[in-house]
Amino acid sequence: MKMREVDIEKWNRKDAFRFFFDFEDPYFSITVDIDATGAYLLSKGSDLPFSLVTLHSALKVANSIREFRMRFVGGKLIEFDTVNGSQVVMHEDETFSFCFYDYSEDLGTFINAGLRAQGAVRNSKKLDENPDRYDQIYFSVIPWVSFSSFKNAQRRDESMTVPRIVFGKFREREGRVLLPVAVEVNHAMMDGLHVGRFFERLEDLFKNLK
Predict the structure, then answer these.
(1) What is the pLDDT of residues 108-145, one digit of tens each?
(2) Do the Cβ atoms of 158 and 74 come closer than 8 Å?
(3) DSSP state, 148?
(4) In 10 A of CB 125, how many CB atoms?
(5) pTM (whole model) above 0.85
(6) Cα 181 to chain centroid, rounded
(7) What b/e string do you get for 143-173 counting C-beta neighbours within 10 Å, with b at 16 or more?
(8) Strand 84-90 vs strand 76-80: parallel, antiparallel, or unpaired?
(9) What's 71's DSSP letter?
(10) Strands (DSSP E) along the chain, which ranges?
């Protein structure tokens, strides 16, 4: 993984970072119904897993926004060149594991590698193979509920600056497929501007998927 240390004194958000960092609850969450019609049609037309199409799109967008690639680890502000994804995989006994997905810009490469990773996780059933990697975003899927808000479990450790993204149950309305997406981030690391930018770019990407 390639990364670089960022000089906090030269960061334009240094004052906001210091203001929010010591909050007891520095996290904020925004949930939006995203028009995912393009992702749905691509998934159905190409026989691709919808969950991996949406995961790939979200990672592509997150990697385009600097703040989603920044972490505060070991007392240092770090910027990764690329962030990957970790998303839950359900087992037959209704337990789950976290599956690590290496990001590739190519959708086919990403999905093929992702399916292999899922198979390995289902065989091992280990909860988390990569608990100490911060070059990732924590994803989850709640396919049973089309929610309008979401709050993740949090703990104050080195993972506290890793963004959390959750997909809910999609629903169809007037010929469109709406997907609830919750983004929860540490306010010390980014603002509503950056989360809003994520949603705008994600919906644009979904609309242009082919």
Answers:
(1) 999 999 999 999 999 998 998 888 899 999 999 999 99
(2) yes
(3) S
(4) 12
(5) yes
(6) 10
(7) eeeeeeebeeeeeeeebbbbbbbbbbebeee
(8) unpaired
(9) E
(10) 3-5, 27-35, 70-73, 76-80, 84-90, 96-101, 136-141, 164-167, 171-173, 176-186
The Cα 198–Cα 99 span in angstroms is 23
Residues 99/121, Cβ–Cβ less than 8 Å: yes
Q: What DSSP state is assigned to residue 205?
A: H
Give the pairing of strands 3-5 and 76-80: antiparallel
How far, in Å, CA of 41 to CA of 6, rounded? 41
Q: Which residues contact 33 (CB under 8 A, 6 or more apart)?
A: 178, 179, 180, 181
Instruction: Give me 187's structure tokens.
Output: 């306010």
Q: Is the C-alpha dihedral spanning 73, 74, 78, 83 positive or negative? A: negative
Contact criterion met (CB below 8 Å) for 147 and 4: no
Say if CB 34 and CB 203 are below 8 A apart: yes
In terms of C-beta density within 10 A (0-12 exposed, 13-18 middle, 19 or more buried), how is residue 45 classed?
Answer: exposed
pLDDT tens, position by position, 87-103:
999 999 999 999 999 99
Residues 6+ apart with CB under 8 A from 73: 134, 158, 161
Question: What is the token pair recorded at 45?
Answer: 């037309």
Q: Which domains does the chain have, with CATH numbers?
A: 3-207 (3.30.559.10)
Residue with tokens 């309008």: 148
pLDDT of res. 158: 75
Which residue type does 190 have? M
